[in-house]
Write a structure and sequence with these properties.
The structure holds three protein chains of three kinds.
Chain A (H helix, E strand, L loop, with lengths): L8 E14 L4 H6 L5 E15 L4 E5 L6 H8 L7 E6 L9 H4 L2 E5 L11 H11 L4 H15 L14 H13 L5 E5 L7 H18 L2 E5 L3 H7 L2 E6 L2 E7 H8 L2 E8 L15 E6 L2 E7 L3 H11 L2 E7 L3 H11 L3
Parallel strand pairs in A: 3-7, 3-8, 5-6, 6-7
Antiparallel strand pairs in A: 1-2, 1-4, 8-9, 10-12, 10-13, 11-12
Helix pairs in contact in A: 9-11
Chain B lengths: L2 H17 L1 H26 L9 H18 L3 H11 L2 H6 L4 H31 L7 H26 L9 H14 L11 H9 L7 H7 L5 H36 L2
Helix pairs in contact in B: 1-6, 2-3, 2-6, 3-6, 3-10, 4-7, 7-10, 7-11
Chain C lengths: L1 H18 L2 H28 L8 H30 L4 H4 L2 H6 L4 H7 L6 H18 L6 H31 L5 H9 L11 H10 L2 H13 L4 H32 L2
Helix pairs in contact in C: 2-3, 2-7, 3-6, 3-7, 3-8, 3-11, 8-11, 8-12
Chain lengths: 333, 263, 263
């Protein structure tokens, strides 16, 4: 059965509101709470709409508690929304039809679905049974994945001895051994060291290219998003603030560029003369970082080269983190 | 000894435990059930007559007191000591300017207060329904307090030194399970010590378990004459001395080994 | 049938998981023997003082203890471990891992009930059968075929009731994840060690109609020892079926609530 829908994931005005008990600190409040509980309504997801095509890799970014994970859970059928609609692969996720569940997969960054005391291969076999994967298919898929992830020696050791990175590899195999059409990843690189993060990103990119699997990824690591996701959706306070290319976001928000200068020692003066429109961001012995408006960058660069003993000069885009931080703080695009 | 630290610890432990008060009420409820079962079984068995000198009402009284004493002497922290050692948290505790013992004691005090908040009303309600028969004399009432205190200390330190075996062996909690079973059988839960058959009764009189639980109960309910009372106290103090000795030895050698091996 | 194959693969994975720790075997054996010992001794001590209690004598009460141990063993075999993995102290719901279970294309109740097995519980089962056998030999009535059939039916009903109650408690955990309902039940389950007739009237009603632990052990024991009416047997079967449907419905309701209200 081929999935011939226009877009693979369609989300319309999705909302999620839930009640949280609240209590103040201190002894009196503790005693009072014995008799009466107070609640608060929290809007986790506030009328979010978007569509995703087959094979796209989309990154959800946003500060903690923004609603990214909640949205992901609604799309995987783990949560009923308070309002709104969604269709994934033609199914309504929260109806949790078995046919739907067999075509999606969720990988959680800090939680493991592996059985702890036995080798991962045993868990994979159980999962193969659960997901209707024939032993022959399972063997072939496992061989491919194990080779791609370079984890041959891990297969026969109990999971409790694994490092975080090794466990993550197992999670990916567990999530992909039944060839899902859609993959949800919630903070998959959380806590991993830099080289492992890089390897996982490469694996995911490769897998997506080969198998045309749609991926939605949430992450705090900008490097994940920058490397993997041509498209990002920014969620803050439950609302969708931006949906598009990451570079365009940076450009829109931070219409400036950074100029890094290194001055030669010969004519070192205390205060180099700077043209107007150039703000000093950083200044160390002989090295300057200036912020200039994007449109003025060429003219200011020329001016600097002419008037100052420049040994080295580079013009850069502001780092993405700074842009995102700014959004988090200001709460708006 | 760090007094202010100790009180602060107790208060903060109590506050955080009150957060999970249903958990502790549940624990208290659970510990109450086995003696309650025997309360019903024996009082039904006695019917209108007496068994071994106990009437129905006296069985009820015995077991209600046992429930309270059990709650007051049971050392819930013994179980966590092993966990603390195994998980490496002992390192944090050893760094504090207080013996980890005080941490445990703070938990004990906080726990007892929380448990009593549940137990006392429930026991009182049960007493109203079940109509116990009890005559408390002044002598027995006064003797009850030290008997109770010594019983708690004995049960605490005996369990503690067993738990410290976790410094050497990983599954020392199996021994704690064994200890619980022995307490159950020989400390007056299955039956008041006087009613145990021959060999068991002799074992119970000599072993430390009766002095952790059954002895104070027997004191308060007036089952013991003066000779038996003093013999009992002697045994109790003697076993407590042994327990303290074992505890100190285990602690010293254990900590040395723990730091040497690296936790 | 696919579901049978799934169960097979669950048993296999669970057995491997169990065998990962050697110490578990010996400790389980120790606990099983302790459980047996304290149970038998409890009954023996009681009957060392009286001949019968409300019509129950030593062999009949021992038979009931045997039934209790067998039902406990069956619970520990798969019902307990599976449901506990969900709703226990370290369970999935508590640790936030329930999502994985919900994502599986298999009926959640099936997974929750049959997922984890503890083959070591077979030891408890053998011990229980031993006690039952020893008691049956000393019973006054001989074991006839109709009596055996009645016993098996009663046991089936008893195990079903147990499953239904534990499933219901697991379901309640989905509403209030803080309260460890199965622990509360464990305590009440202890009361099934003794014939329900031994408890005072009001408690007997509670143990028959509110939390039917009494039915689980007393009815099968009566089937063997005599005194079981057809009405009681039919009633217990009806209760089992009713509770099963009710608990399953409650579980599904709980799933709906969990996925609507959590985050």
């Amino acid at each position: 059965m081929e999935d011939r829908v226009e877009a693979q994931i369609i989300v319309r005005e999705l909302c999620k509101v839930y009640r949280v008990p609240e209590r103040e600190a201190g002894l009196r409040a503790a005693v009072r709470s014995l008799f009466r509980r107070r609640y608060r309504d929290v809007v986790a997801v506030d009328h979010i709409s978007f569509t995703v095509q087959t094979g796209e890799v989309v990154g959800f970014i946003g500060p903690n508690g923004a609603g990214k994970t909640t949205t992901l859970k609604m799309l995987s059928g783990l949560l009923y929304p308070t309002a709104g609609q969604a269709r994934v692969l033609g199914f309504v996720p929260w109806e949790r039809k078995h046919d739907y569940l067999r075509r999606i997969s969720m990988v959680l960054g800090n939680k493991s679905q592996m059985l702890w005391d036995i080798p991962p291969l045993d868990t994979f076999h159980v999962l193969g049974e659960i997901y209707h994967v024939t032993p022959a298919e399972l063997k072939q898929t496992l061989d491919e994945l194990v080779e791609l992830l370079e984890m041959q020696e891990l297969l026969t050791k109990p999971v409790r001895n694994f490092s975080l990175g090794e466990r993550m590899k197992c999670e990916l195999v567990a999530g992909l051994l039944y060839h899902p059409r859609v993959l949800f990843l919630d903070e998959p690189t959380l806590g991993l060291d830099v080289s492992m993060q890089g390897r996982l990103r490469r694996f995911l990119a490769e897998y997506n290219r080969h198998n045309d699997v749609t991926m939605i990824l949430t992450s705090h690591y900008m490097a994940d998003v920058v490397t993997l996701c041509p498209r990002v959706i920014l969620i803050h306070h439950g609302r969708l603030l931006y949906d598009g290319e990451l570079s365009a976001l940076a450009e829109r928000l931070a219409p400036f560029k950074l100029i890094r200068l290194t001055l030669s020692n010969e004519r070192a003066e205390d205060e180099p003369q700077l043209p107007p429109g150039a703000d000093v961001v950083e200044q160390e012995s002989g090295r300057l970082t200036l912020r200039v408006a994007r449109s003025e960058a060429p003219s200011i660069t020329a001016h600097l080269l002419n008037t100052l003993p420049v040994a080295d000069l580079a013009v850069e885009d502001p780092p993405v983190e700074a842009v995102i931080d700014q959004i988090y703080q200001e709460g708006d695009v | 000894m760090n007094q202010r630290g100790g009180w602060a610890l107790i208060k903060s432990t109590w506050l955080s435990w009150m957060q999970h008060r249903s958990f502790f009420f549940l624990l208290a409820f659970m510990w109450m059930i086995p003696p309650l079962i025997y309360l019903f079984v024996w009082s039904t068995a006695a019917g209108g007559k007496t068994i071994g000198g106990f009437s129905r009402g006296e069985f009820v009284a015995y077991y209600l007191v046992l429930i309270l004493v059990n709650q007051l002497t049971y050392s819930q922290t013994n179980w966590t000591v092993g966990d603390v050692i195994r998980s490496g948290q002992m390192n944090t505790l050893l760094l504090r300017p207080m013996l980890p013992l005080y941490d445990t004691l703070a938990s004990e005090v906080a726990g007892k207060v929380v448990f009593m908040a549940f137990m006392i009303p429930v026991t009182a309600a049960l007493a109203l329904v079940l109509r116990p028969e009890m005559h408390v004399t002044l002598r027995n009432g006064l003797a009850f307090v030290p008997a109770l205190g010594l019983a708690w200390a004995l049960r605490f330190f005996w369990g503690y030194w067993l738990a410290l075996l976790a410094f050497w062996a990983t599954r020392a909690d199996a021994l704690l399970g064994l200890q619980d079973s022995l307490v159950f059988l020989l400390a007056g839960q299955v039956a008041p010590t006087a009613l145990l058959p021959g060999l068991m009764r002799e074992a119970a009189t000599v072993l430390p378990f009766r002095y952790m639980l059954g002895f104070p109960v027997e004191v308060l309910t007036g089952q013991l004459n003066t000779v038996e009372l003093w013999t009992g106290f002697t045994f109790q103090a003697g076993w407590l001395f042994v327990a303290l000795l074992l505890f100190v030895t285990m602690w010293r050698t254990g900590v040395k080994r723990y730091s040497a091996v690296g936790g | 049938m696919r579901y049978l194959r799934l169960i097979g693969s669950f048993v296999r994975a669970s057995t491997q998981n169990e065998l990962a720790y050697r110490a578990n075997f010996w400790i389980s054996l120790l606990y099983a023997l302790l459980n047996l010992g304290t149970g038998v001794l409890g009954v023996v001590v009681l009957f060392s003082q009286v001949e019968t209690v409300r019509g129950w004598d030593l062999p009949a009460t021992l038979a009931l203890l045997g039934v209790y141990l067998i039902i406990g063993a069956l619970r520990n075999l798969f019902i307990g471990p599976s449901l506990n993995a969900l709703a226990g102290l370290d369970g999935e719901i508590w640790a936030g891992k329930f999502d994985f279970t919900l994502l599986r294309p298999v009926d959640t109740q099936f997974l929750a009930s049959l997922r984890y097995w503890r083959p070591l519980a077979l030891v408890d089962l053998v011990l229980g059968l031993g006690v039952l056998g020893a008691a049956v030999i000393r019973l006054e009535q001989s074991l006839t075929l109709p009596r055996l059939v009645a016993f098996l039916v009663a046991m089936g009903a008893g195990v079903t009731i147990l499953y239904a109650i534990l499933l219901a408690f697991t379901a309640l955990f989905l509403w209030s994840p803080g309260f460890l309902f199965t622990w509360a039940f464990d305590a009440v389950f202890q009361m099934a060690r003794y014939p329900v007739g031994l408890y005072p009237g009001w408690l007997r009603l509670v143990l028959t109609w509110v939390i039917p632990v009494g039915v689980m052990t007393t009815v099968p024991a009566q089937a063997l020892a005599g005194g079981l009416s057809a009405g009681t047997l039919i009633g217990s079967v009806a209760l089992a079926v009713g509770l099963l449907f009710g608990a399953s419905a409650l579980f599904r309701l709980g799933l709906r609530r969990y996925t609507s209200a959590s985050s």
